[in-house]
Amino acid sequence: MNPIYAAMGTTIFEAMSARARASGAVNLGQGFPDGTGPEAVLHTAAEALTQRSNQYPPMIGIPELREAVADHYARHQGLNLTAEEVVVTSGATEALAAALLALITPGDEVLCFQPLYDAYVPLIERAGGVPRFVRLEPPEWRITAEALEAAVTERTRLVLFNNPLNPAATMASAGELALLADFCVSHDLIAVCDEVWEHVTFDGARHLPLIGFPGMRERTVKIGSAGKIFALTGWKVGWMCAAPQLLRGLAKAHQFLTFTTPPNLQWAVAHGLNTQDDWVQRASAGFQRSRDRLKNGLETLGLVTLPSAATYFLSIDLTASGIDEGDVDFCNRLLDEAGVAAIPVSAFYAQDAVTNVVRLCFAKADETLDAALERMARLRAPA
């Protein structure tokens, strides 16, 4: 077996969810929301399944969805993409895999920002690349010029950038994005931008795509997710956007991964992107209310939380909360003693981990959040 996978355990998300299912715990670990998504999108998918084609759609995606993605980004982010610059994928993780397989030549180095999505490192290594890490630290988790320059070498070819950032729940500022754009241009790097959380933002903040910054239009791969936009995480419909000379290579990698994506879901997502802007806005406002409900409840229990500007997640700062315990031990105790599943943020580091931050998912019904808070109130102090 390939040693990259042979030495790998089950992801922390699946492990904690499995323990939660087995024990009847309230699961605030894995990031999936309660709710069913926009009704109009579901109906379109169901109708297309029975009334339209279920044979292979075009490998790069149906024209309606590629056009809808381009139009969506023109409306919301001021981008001048065309349908010819969009490839539909079976989820954003497949888009990441295709991009990395297409762009990495064995030995190339890829800059990653820690904490990071756990798929990044194995995907880079399986493509023959070498991950190099820029370590971000709480509470701001900010990118600095010094950290970038310390990580880059003459073998660096790519930057893999998640914005908004899971698990930190931060959004890069315009200044940070300008800094990163200048860095990519000056070092002749391609940026692979995982922007799946671009519509799950709070407090009036607006997502700014790196591809829109000076010098980045021809050197950026922008990745999006219908699952995140419409809170339909099981659908696994995503896309890659890039200039034609980049996209041709990405499509070649995609054709030998999933090749294509269920056509009924593609028609439904196209319909959603064209008609459901109001639903997306209401969903974001709902997630913000849930964030505030959980935050207020945690603070009532004496737990200090870190800012959450985006995503489905809110983190507890154990040190600031007066808890002299590592994040893994705290999460195990929280599950065993209180029946609440959470995720230790150290799981999102490949090296030099932050060990005093715990992530909770707030994209849940009010009664689920309240039940978790009631259980957490019974948690004993560490021995």
From TrEMBL:
Its cofactor is pyridoxal 5'-phosphate. NCBIfam families: PRK08912.1 (NF006488). The lineage of its organism: Bacteria, Pseudomonadati, Pseudomonadota, Alphaproteobacteria, Sphingomonadales. InterPro entries: Aminotransferase_I/II_large, Kynurenine-oxoglutarate_AT, PyrdxlP-dep_Trfase, PyrdxlP-dep_Trfase_major, PyrdxlP-dep_Trfase_small. Residues 26-375 form the Aminotransferase class I/classII large domain. GO terms for cellular component: cytoplasm. It comes from Stakelama tenebrarum. It catalyses: L-aspartate + 2-oxoglutarate = oxaloacetate + L-glutamate. Keywords: Aminotransferase, Pyridoxal phosphate, Transferase. The keyword Transferase applies. GO terms for molecular function: kynurenine-oxoglutarate transaminase activity; L-aspartate:2-oxoglutarate aminotransferase activity; pyridoxal phosphate binding. Its EC number is 2.6.1.1. Signal peptide: none annotated. This is aspartate transaminase. Belongs to the class-I pyridoxal-phosphate-dependent aminotransferase family. Homodimer. Pfam families: Aminotran_1_2.
